[in-house]
Amino acid sequence: MTETKNDFSKGSVARCIMSLALPMTAAQLINVLYSVVDRMYIGHLPESSTLALTGIGLTFPIISIISAFTQLFGMGGAPLCSIARGEGNHERAETVMNNSFTLLLIAGAVLTAFFLTLKKPILYLFGASDQTFPYADAYLTIYLVGTIFVMIGLGMNSFINSQGFGRMGMMTVLLGAIVNIALDPVFIFVLNMGVQGAALATVISQFLSAAWVVRFLTGKKAIYRLNPARMRLQKRLVGQISALGLSGFMMAVTNGAVQIVCNATLQQFGGDLYVGIMTVINSIREVLTMPVSGLTNGAQPVMGFNYGAKLYARVRSGIRFTSIGCIVYTTVVWIILMLTPEFFIHIFNSEPELIADGVPALNLYFFGFFMMSLQFSGQSVFVALGKSKQAVFFSLLRKAIIVVPLTLLLPHLFGLGVNGVFLAEPISNFIGGAACFFTMLATVWPSLRGEEKQAA
Questions:
Q1: Which residue has the higher pLDDT, 294 or 135?
Q2: 50, 268, 377, 390: which sits with the fewest CB atoms below 10 Å from its CB?
C-alpha cells in the first residue's frame, strides 16, 4: 500500500505539485488568520486601537521564534521523510517523523518556560514603551500557554503534507481558523476581554488543530504513524533533521531578529505610530507571501521524492514550474499593492494618521516585491534536495547579513530616518533573492542534468 499511495513519480509534475500546493496554500492562508484576524479586530477597537495593535506587534518576534522551531524539526524532518519514502525506506521515514515529534514536544516545553520567565525585559528590549507593554504582556502571557499546541499543529502537519495528504493538512488549520474567527469577536467584544480575548481564542484554536493532527497520524489512513517505539531520539537522525530544518529555522529566527531591530529603530526615530505601521505592513506581507510559501512547500515533497527515486528530469520540471509560478504571482500582487495601498492598510487600522504615514512606508517596503520570489524558489530547491548548507547560507544572507545592518545604518544616512528602515527590505530582496536563485541555477541545475545522464 505504501508503495503506491501518493506516488509522485507518476503523472504530470505540475499536477503533483498543485495537488499539494493548492490545499497547502489554502491551509497557510487560513493559518495566517490565527494572528491576522486578531490584529484586524484589535486594530478597530473603539479605544486605544493603535496602541493595542502595536502591543500585539511587539510579540511578533517571540511568535516568530516559536514558529522557527516548528520549521527546525517539522520542515526539517518532512523532506527527509519524503526522500526516504522515494527510496522505499519506509522504516526510516516513520522513524524520522517520530523523532521530529519528540523534538517538537521538548522545544515547546522549553520555550514556554523561557519566555514566561523573561517576557518583561524581552518585550522592552524589542521596543515596548510604558503605553504598549500592558497590551503586549496581556496577549503574550495567554498565547504562550498554547506553545506546545503550535509545535504539534504546525510542525507535524508537515508530515501529513509530505505523505501526500494535502487536503487533510488543509483541514488541520481550517478547523482552528474557523474556531478562531468565531471566538475572536465573542471574547474581544461581547465578553470585553480585548487583547486577552484574542489570545485565548488563538490558544483554543491551536489546541483543536493539534488534536486533529495527532488523531490523523495515529489513525489508519496515514502512511506513517506516530509510534512510541520510534519516538526515542536517535543522535544521527536528530542531527540530520536539525541540519535540514536549519534554513527554515534561520529564516524564521532572522525574521524575528529583523522585527526586533525594526521595532527598536522605529521607536527611536518615529515612536509608537511607526511601530504600529510596521505591524500593519508585516500583517500584509504575511498574507501576500502565503501563496508563494504554499507553492514552494507543495513542491518540496514532490521534488524530494523524485530526487530520492533518481528521477532527475522530474526534479528539473518541478524547479521550472515552481520558479515561474512564484515570479508571475509576486509580480501581479506587487502591481495591485502599489495601486491600492490604502485598501490594504485600512483592513488593519482606520486611524487617519496611521494611514497617511503608512502609505509611503508601504510603497518603500514592497518595492520590487517580485524579487522575493527568487529567494523562495531557490531556497525550496536546496531544502527539497537535502542541501542544508546552501539553504542555511542564503537564509542568513538576506536577513542577518543584509537587512539587519541596513536597518541600523540607513536611518542615520542622508536624513532618511524611518524611511531607511523600510528601504532595507527591498534592497535585501534584490541582492539576496538574486544571489540565492542564480546560485541554485548555476549549481543544482547542471548537476541534475549530469546525474540524469549517469542514471540513464
A1: 135
A2: 268
Whether 453 shows a pLDDT value over 60: the answer reads no
Query: What is d(CA 445, CA 114) in angstroms, rounded to the nearest whole number?
Result: 43
- Which helix H or strand E contains 157, and what residues bound it? helix 156-162
Q: What range defines the domain where residue 450 resides? A: 13-455
How long, in residues, is the chain?
456
Cα separation, 103 vs 235, in Å, equals 12
Q: Write out 346-383 in H/E/C secondary structure.
A: HCCCCCHHHHHHHHHHHHHHCCCHHHHHHHHHHHHHHH
Contact 427, 402 (CB under 8 A): yes
Q: What is the pLDDT of residues 69-99, one digit of tens each?
A: 998 998 888 888 888 887 888 888 889 999 9
The three three-digit cell numbers of residue 410, written as one number: 540607513
Nearest to 424 by CA among 363, 365, 359: 365
Q: Which of 181, 182, 176 is nearest to 208 (CA)?
A: 176
Question: Comparing C-alpha atoms, which of 65, 421, 56, 139 is closest to residue 261?
Answer: 421
The Cα 185–Cα 38 span in angstroms is 9
- Selection from 96, 31, 92 nearest residue 67 by Cα: 31
Residue 129 cell numbers, joined: 514603551
Which 3 state secondary structure label does DSSP give 155? helix
Give the Cα separation of 117 and 339 in Å (integer): 45
Find the distance separating the first CA and the last CA of the chain, reported in whole Å: 28
Does the residue 5 lie in any domain?
Answer: no
6 in a structural domain: no
Grid coordinates given for 346: 485600512
Please say whether the beta carbons of 84 and 92 come within 8 A: yes
For 174-223, the pLDDT digits (tens) are 788 888 888 988 998 888 888 889 889 989 999 998 999 999 999 888 88
Name residues whose C-beta falls within 8 Å of residue 61's C-beta, 6 or more positions apart in sequence: 126, 256, 257, 259, 260, 263
Query: How many structural domains is the chain composed of?
Result: 1
> Locate cell 507593554: which residue?
133
CA distance 57 to 260: 10
Q: Cite the DSSP H helix spans in 43-155.
A: 49-57, 60-70, 76-87, 90-125, 133-145, 147-150
Is 81 within 8 Å of 96 (Cβ atoms)? yes
Is residue 150 assigned to a domain? Answer: yes
